[in-house]
Amino acid sequence: MRRSQKSLKKRLPKKTGARGLRSILENILLKTMFELPDMENVEKVTVDRSAVRGATAPIVTYGKKPSTSVA
Length: 71
Prior knowledge:
alpha+beta
């Protein structure tokens, strides 16, 4: 997971360390964390500036579905 510059800036004025950053990311990813186990072929979840501001949800990137062809 890549840290967003915005989330780091959000953390710095609070003078929090890793636990503070974790708390911020957990708040941003809360809905995604509950939905993720039911999703298939997820490669990564990206937290961008818009997600940090709360304007959009984190971006879920899906991989290719495994081939189910029978030879």
